[in-house]
Specification:
eight-stranded mixed beta sheet; seven-stranded mixed beta sheet; 21 helices; binds zinc ion
């Protein structure tokens, strides 16, 4: 009898099995739109709703993805159009929908919108396509557990990459029968997702010339898929990414996936669609916008970004607050836990690179120096707690959000030192992360209010004081005091750091400064893209306080570099020919009210301005840059415990 019941239940389930088939047609990307067709089977409801998400996991900002949808239509099995009402900017309702068979809409390009960051939006262009899943897909009747098939249909000259499990790749011939499309040959790549969360967690990138590398490590395989207008140094990229995945899967003793995809859009400097760079994490993939620069320059910032996103696949994609999954895509997230998800992730992103010998010890010194400077510049780091900043994340205020990657990272460092120093280095933040991951594997999330209590239980310490000061409070971080506990401090009374900031001006007018030319020149408006600008005008000076910051003024225009007329498209070439030491003579034209100037030019119709020319000689003596920033060097007289803590955090090999 029991057997029969089971049999009938199976039959019943098979009959009711629902599936959604989403087809994304990249057929006219030159119009900066893609068409999405949703085929619905057995929805069996009188009214059908279609909901686009208002935010994307990982990006958190309230974006309203429905705002990029146009031409929303619904049809029954006979092709008859059904009545649709738009309930709000992100939701549609279809009445008389018992025989609904298909929904169709267009998605517009959004990558320059100020509602979110590039990698949480959609970039749709003639020869390039990138989209976060939240840009493309909605869910039906508020059900997020329906399995989905996704068909990407694209011209046969394109290649496509996404992290979903592939089902098939059909050639052009099988497509001819599709009625709504023209006769251009298209490929159809079919993927599957077990539910809506998985579907929108897989970004997609397509291009006519993807650069691809694949490798295996442990039980998993990895793809690096990169799009760029020029060749990228894929050998070096693969080498570093391989080291990073090896280090972090070793750290967690866990590889909770079979396949992982790194999707990288690496435009040349000239083609960069945004001035910022960055990335977004997903469960089995991550996507990046990083400028294609010579490897030597790329290496100074690239590895920590890959390290950060890869660490997220445990910390936030699996270890997370109950408010961060299962997701409610219709309400802004109100979690206070992003100091763990972002700050602690960033702490490990940096320190695991040194701990596993991928980057030298001095990158740790540099990190502490850079991040404490960034933290001190951030107003909200003093006025708002990390928990409040976590709540604010949905507002998409970049100046606040970036505090997780300065103060949040340093709080991670302090918390690890706190645990290690109070337990004689028997316990560490590593134990916390591993225990939280064990919970996550059992499907256990944490309530925000329980997080510190969990850490106390794992470490056996009372962490209330630390928590109330630096996480739920705005006390200044006693960085030097904590660093001393890991045997790190000021070894010499050196003037190195002062020298860097003061950069003495030589009698012949030349200036010696440390740093890179590119970094010092990477200024200007957030809103414009480089492509839009015919000439290089300084809208904002990045390096205020250094000589270049004091010499070049906002509004100045760069005319020549070493006697050659400067155009924006040459910017990428400058860093490439970096030699040590390197000298640049810049001629800068400055509109100013200096009436005694020699050349006049009407810059503004109301006030004819005089133009001053400035000749600036920049000498980059890279060899003069100290190998160690003495303030954060290993102390020679450190105690064995301090040395053990330091080795535990940044490794032995320096
Ligand atoms: Zn992150």
């Amino acid at each position: 009898m029991l057997k029969y019941i089971a049999f009938f239940l199976l039959i019943a389930q098979a009959c009711l099995a629902q599936e959604l088939v989403y087809t994304v047609a990249l057929h006219s990307t030159q119009t900066h739109t893609v068409q999405v067709i949703v085929e619905l089977k057995k929805m069996g409801a009188k009214t059908v709703s279609y909901q686009m998400p208002i935010w994307a996991p990982g990006a958190y900002s309230v974006t309203h993805y429905g705002h990029y949808v146009t031409d929303f239509k619904a049809f029954d099995a006979k092709g008859k159009e059904l009545a649709v009402t738009q309930a709000n900017g992100d939701r549609w309702e279809i009445s008389e929908a018992k025989n609904i068979a298909k929904i169709s809409y267009l998605i517009g390009d959004s990558h320059k919108d100020s509602t979110s960051l590039y990698f949480a939006l959609a970039h749709i262009d003639t020869n390039f396509f990138f989209a976060n899943g939240t840009c493309l897909f909605g869910y039906v009747n508020d059900k997020k557990n329906i399995p989905a098939k996704v068909i990407y249909s694209f011209p046969d000259t394109w290649h496509i990459a996404t992290a979903l499990d592939p089902v098939s790749l059909d050639t052009a011939s099988s497509l001819k029968s599709r009625p709504d499309w023209d006769e251009v040959p298209y490929f159809m790549a079919t993927y599957k997702a077990k539910n809506y969360d998985e579907l929108v967690d897989a970004p997609v990138m397509a291009d006519t010339g993807l650069q691809i590398r694949s490798f295996n490590d442990g039980s998993a395989s990895y793809d690096i898929v990169l799009a760029s207008q020029k060749k990228f140094e894929m050998d070096s990229l693969e080498e570093y990414i391989h080291k990073i995945v090896h280090a972090e899967t070793d750290f967690f003793h866990d590889t909770p996936f079979k396949h992982y995809t790194f999707l990288v859009y690496a435009p040349t400097y000239f083609n960069s669609p945004a001035l910022g760079q960055g990335a977004l994490e997903h469960a089995n993939s991550s996507d990046y916008l990083l400028v294609n620069l010579p490897w030597k320059t790329f290496k100074t910032f690239g590895p920590e970004i890959f390290s950060h996103e890869f660490f997220h696949l445990w910390n936030v994609k699996r270890i997370h607050s109950s408010l961060l999954g299962p997701f409610d895509y219709t309400k802004r997230v109100m979690t206070t836990s992003l100091w763990l998800s972002e700050g602690i992730t960033d702490y490990y992103a940096h320190t695991l690179l040194t701990r596993y010998g991928i980057m030298p010890y001095r990158t740790f010194e540099q990190m502490v120096k850079n991040l404490s400077a960034l933290m001190n510049q951030a107003e909200a780091a003093r006025s708002e707690t990390l928990e409040q900043l976590s709540i604010d994340e949905s507002d998409f205020a970049l100046d606040k959000a970036t505090i997780f990657y300065s103060k949040g990272t340093l709080v991670g460092l302090l918390l690890d030192i706190e645990i290690r120093s109070r337990t004689n280095n028997k316990k560490s933040l590593d134990d916390v992360m591993l225990a939280l991951n064990d919970d996550a594997k059992k499907g256990i999330t944490f309530k925000d209010s329980e997080l510190i209590g969990k850490m106390e239980k794992i470490t056996g310490l009372d962490l209330q004081n630390f928590y109330h000061k630096y996480i739920a409070g705005t006390d200044d971080l006693p960085l030097d005091e904590y660093l001393a506990k890991m045997g790190v401090g000021d070894t010499v009374n050196s003037n190195f750091s002062k020298m860097e900031a003061e950069s003495t001006s030589n009698p012949d007018g030349s200036i010696s400064i440390a740093g890179t030319f590119l970094h010092d020149l990477l200024p200007t408006s957030d809103k414009e893209t480089l492509k839009d600008r015919a000439q290089w005008t300084f809208y904002r000076i990045q390096s205020e306080g250094t000589m270049i910051g004091d010499t070049i003024e906002v509004g100045d225009t760069l005319k020549t570099v070493n006697g050659e007329p400067f155009t924006v498209d040459k910017l990428g070439e400058i860093g490439k020919n970096f030699k040590r030491p390197v000298s640049y003579e810049l001629e800068v034209v400055s509109p100013s009210l200096n009436k005694t100037g020699s050349e006049s030019n009407a810059i503004s119709p109301s006030a004819p301005l005089t133009v001053r020319r400035k000749h600036i000689k920049l000498v980059y003596d890279v060899q003069d840059t100290p190998k160690h920033t003495p303030k954060y060097a290993p102390l020679p007289n450190a105690t064995p415990l301090q040395v053990a803590i330091r080795h535990g955090i940044v490794g032995m090999d320096y």
